[in-house]
Design a protein that fits this description.
The chain has 325 residues and is mainly β. It is built from 2 helices and 28 strands. The chain folds into 2 domains: 92 residues, Sandwich (Immunoglobulin-like), CATH 2.60.40; 151 residues, Jelly Rolls (Sandwich). Helix content is 3%, strand content 44%. It is elongated. It starts with a strand and ends with a strand.
Length: 325
């Protein structure tokens, strides 16, 4: 409680609340085809959730959320939780009476058409091109570079064919088979989003020649959603691992033992320099390969399974491999 004392008497007693938790807006997917059901929750008890759909911030007079509702067009949903006893807009930024504003943008999108290709011309797996050299050059000019070798792989981001501990890159190409019409969500690897660690690699994903753009918003952070027609869609993934260029950061520290006399001054004769201690700190992700996850119609969130990846069937002609047209 907060209170004041006047003439020895306590007055103006007011309760002090912990901050109201932000509103959680669902679903996490921020793309839809025809209509989408929106839900809202708040971890703080005894609050009213109010929301807007016109881009304005919610106030105490905004629409009261009672149950999930449906949107049919692209919408910016903003929501805020107010303690039930709050009757006017709080004049404080402490969030003790009203949460900070939560926002989610949901985009209506037409389904991308599947590629017209006969199934008997495809087989499971991807093709790959392998590169070595300056990682920045690979990142900027990989499409114009000559690969060191090419081959076939079964899984996405399979690096078993690498030939160096120095920077290297792969381009994986093929098709993603969408098993049903609907919205598919791709999840960016966690270490790629973190600000306290260097992922140690660059990653680019192209679907139907469109570069993915993972959301940087609180809602749907690190995800990219796209509406796909059932069937095969062109997929290309570029992976450049530059951890071979990074050394551990070594911090050299000296440890001292210091004693003080009765006046608080340092006793110079008691100061002893201990042997230097070498501390190694690694700020680079130490995983093997990242995992790109996917979810969609009847597809639980998981690493992109090999069963959804296809490439054109290759025939052996005069000792060389060629793709069937």
């Amino acid at each position: 409680f907060e209170f004041s004392i006047k003439n020895g008497e306590i007055e103006h007693i007011e309760p002090v609340f912990t901050p109201v938790e932000p509103v959680s807006i669902t679903p996490e997917t921020n793309v839809f085809v025809s209509r989408l059901k929106i839900g809202m929750t708040c971890k703080t008890q005894d609050v009213d959730i109010r929301y807007t759909l016109d881009g304005s911030e919610p106030t105490i007079q905004s629409t009261l959320y009672r149950k999930p509702f449906v949107i049919n067009n692209t919408s910016i949903v903003q929501a805020r939780a107010f303690r039930k006893e709050t009757k006017t807009m709080p004049n404080t930024m402490s969030a003790t009476h009203a949460s900070y504003v939560s926002m989610a943008t949901f985009k209506k999108q037409e389904m991308q058409k599947a590629v017209s290709i006969r199934k008997n011309l495809l087989e499971n797996g991807l093709t790959y091109k392998y590169f070595e050299g300056n990682w920045k050059h690979m990142f900027l000019f990989m499409a114009q570079m000559q690969p060191k070798k090419e081959g076939l792989g079964e899984n996405l981001l399979d690096i078993q064919h690498r030939e160096t501990e120095k920077p290297f890159g792969f381009v994986y190409s093929g098709y993603l088979n969408a098993p049903a019409n609907g919205v598919y969500t791709f999840y960016c690897p966690e270490e790629y989003l973190r600000t306290d660690v260097d992922a140690g690699y660059e990653l680019q994903v192209y679907l139907n020649n469109e570069l993915w753009t993972p959301s940087n918003k609180v809602h749907s952070q690190g995800t990219w959603s796209v509406a796909l027609e059932k069937g095969y869609h062109k997929l290309e993934v570029r992976y450049i691992d530059y951890r071979g260029d990074i050394s551990k950061i070594k911090v050299l520290t000296k440890t001292y033992e210091i004693s003080f006399d009765r006046t608080g001054d340092v006793k110079g004769s008691d100061r002893r320099n201990f042997p230097d201690t070498l501390i190694e700190r690694n700020f680079t992700w130490d995983g093997i390969t990242p995992a790109i996850q996917i979810s969609g119609p009847s597809l639980e969130k998981q690493s992109i399974p090999a069963t959804l990846l296809y490439r054109k069937v290759r025939q052996i002609v005069a000792g060389s491999a060629v793709c069937r047209k």
